[in-house]
TrEMBL record:
This is choline-phosphate cytidylyltransferase. Belongs to the cytidylyltransferase family. Residues 239-266 form a coiled coil. It comes from Ceratotherium simum simum (Southern white rhinoceros). Gene3D superfamilies: HUPs.
Amino acid sequence: MPVLTTDAESETGIPKSLSNEPPSETMEEIEHTCPQPRLTLTAPAPFADESSCQCQAPHERLTIAQARLGTPVDRPVRVYADGIFDLFHSGHARALMQAKTLFPNSYLLVGVCSDDLTHKFKGFTVMNEAERYEALRHCRYVDEVIRDAPWTLTPEFLEKHKIDFVAHDDIPYSSAGSDDVYKHIKEAGMFVPTQRTEGISTSDIITRIVRDYDVYARRNLQRGYTAKELNVSFINEKKYRFQNQVDKMKEKVKNVEERSKEFVNRVEEKSHDLIQKWEEKSREFIGNFLELFGPDGAWKQMFQERSSRMLQALSPKQSPVSSPTRSRSPSRSPSPTFSWLPIKTSPPSSPKAASASISSMSEGDEDEK
């Protein structure tokens, strides 16, 4: 396998080229004992000072082509990524995911700069260094965390941690008096670029908080933080608390409006149901009335039938022309026969004549008795 020659170093001391010639001194082959990538995620990633690479085998730097082929098979490709990682977010995680998946068998070391270096070269952080270390330890792509990482990578640091490649986005990072702190890494062929995630960064998150400062100050006052903890003046505290009370009243009014709308909607639905039922019942009542009292209704037929029966009951039946004679009892005298022929009588000419005729009719009745 190609090894590094002793004179193939750049001005910065980083090995620059590979030689196909074996070293002049014969060396006994030593098996690699470098740490392997994490296979389980039941525990956080270790710190470098707790599990540093104690492998005694010579570390031979790989080319990108060799690393992508998965060689050598006896050790993983050691990839290094560094940063501040303040307010750890999805952009950080995606960058580390890219660094982890650059090669088939990668061991990802992540360097986190201390508070002193960060405040000196970049600015104040929201999270302190211990919080940032712990955030990185619990990222699934990280195999090892290096605390107090250097701002600019030195040959001694790369050699100590047996780093094969350095992963970072390709945008020149100007800092500490340099146009690009990764320039010497790129010249040595050890740089592998990753892609930034647009729309998310620590600066963007801080900008949102500063822009909506009043909202978050009121939010934390509601959650029990004191004005002193929030660095809020007495006047602003009273203003925020008053605004919170106003918002609560608005929320109550809004809830009442929503409930009243729901009640009105329910009443409308019920009224529609009642009207629909009333219409159905009305149609049913009208139909039944027409069936009973209409021109061809059952009541008319029943009335006609009853009328005919009453007429038949009231009108006498005509006697037959010839009827058989009944045998008379000998003890009884024969009843006189009466003639049913109409007798024409002239009206009386005067009241006296009328009274005389009535008296004669009454005398005749008495004689018959």
